[in-house]
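Whiteboard transcription, Tuesday session. T.W. wrote the structure tokens on the left side:
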């Protein structure tokens, strides 16, 4: 796998981070959080539209008073609308935390967005959703519980927990599972990759057949932060995320064989320091990756890369 180009598409904010990427109407939409710093209460969402060569076309923002909007994710709904999910940490006028909850917006063109719609339970973070037919699936985590729950539905209507305790410290002996992604193969089988921040810190690969209420887990023996995954033929999955390589954080892409569950490092993108939280799409036999990194001037900037398969 070879990197064709890597473009810096946004570097004007104090802290730009936590990206996602979606192809929509032959354009690339990159979403990310803009804020004063990593944990400040003033997070807004910016969506940058680029052409397929990484040239910026336009951008727009979403803001909510007294809310820190975090980790926006983009998907195309079965009816063709663009859907964005995020997690809002909500505060009162004095800056005291009130609650946190997942929310979403939809758009017909990626420029004008609907009002927000809250979904799932308060204080359970639905990290990312993926569509399988007319239904969306996603894992939610809560740090205090050290547990993942599986949700299903349509975030604009109902989105309910259908399988609690899919992966947890209490049931599996695996501490603090959190950021995750799902991938559905052509035969309907589901694969998942989950970050963990306890004990061995190694990511887990999950496997399930429909209706996705029984999961098997395999240790990937590798730390992967904020994983994003896509299928790569009938036997492999591509995984992109934050890697710990030679004592440094990098944004890396692996290939995983679904039978052996073994990872092969394919590409390390230009990155370092505070970095990663990638988005990834396959389009016209190219792989596009969005991510953030602070390897140039210790300031976090947003990047878009194109790779050859």
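and on the right, the sequence the group agreed on:
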């Amino acid at each position: 796998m070879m990197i064709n180009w890597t473009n810096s598409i946004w570097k004007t904010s104090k802290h730009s981070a936590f990206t996602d990427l979606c192809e929509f109407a032959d354009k690339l939409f990159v979403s990310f959080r803009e804020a004063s710093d990593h944990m400040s209460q003033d997070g807004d969402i910016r969506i940058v539209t680029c052409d397929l060569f990484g040239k910026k076309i336009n951008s727009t923002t979403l803001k909510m008073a007294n809310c820190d909007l975090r980790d926006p994710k983009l998907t195309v709904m079965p009816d063709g609308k663009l859907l964005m999910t995020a997690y809002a940490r909500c505060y009162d006028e004095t800056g005291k935390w009130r609650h946190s909850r997942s929310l979403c917006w939809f758009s017909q063109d990626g420029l004008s967005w609907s009002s927000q719609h809250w979904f799932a339970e308060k204080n359970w973070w639905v990290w990312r959703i993926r569509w399988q037919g007319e239904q969306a699936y996603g894992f939610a985590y809560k740090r205090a519980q050290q547990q993942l729950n599986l949700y299903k539905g349509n975030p604009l209507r109902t989105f309910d927990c259908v399988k609690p305790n899919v992966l947890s410290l209490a049931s599996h002996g695996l501490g603090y599972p959190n950021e995750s992604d799902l991938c559905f193969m052509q035969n309907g089988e589901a694969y998942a990759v989950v970050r963990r921040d306890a004990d061995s810190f190694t990511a887990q690969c999950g496997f399930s057949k429909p209706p996705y209420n029984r999961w098997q887990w395999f240790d990937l023996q590798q730390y992967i932060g904020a994983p994003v995954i896509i299928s790569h033929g009938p036997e492999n999955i591509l995984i992109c995320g934050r890697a710990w390589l030679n004592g440094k954080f990098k944004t890396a892409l692996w290939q995983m064989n679904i039978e052996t569950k073994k990872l092969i490092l394919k590409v390390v993108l230009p990155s370092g320091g505070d970095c990663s939280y990638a988005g990834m799409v396959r389009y016209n036999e190219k792989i596009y990756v969005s991510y953030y990194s602070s390897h140039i001037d210790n300031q976090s900037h947003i990047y878009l890369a194109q790779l050859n398969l």
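Someone added at the bottom: The two ends are 5 Å apart (CA to CA).
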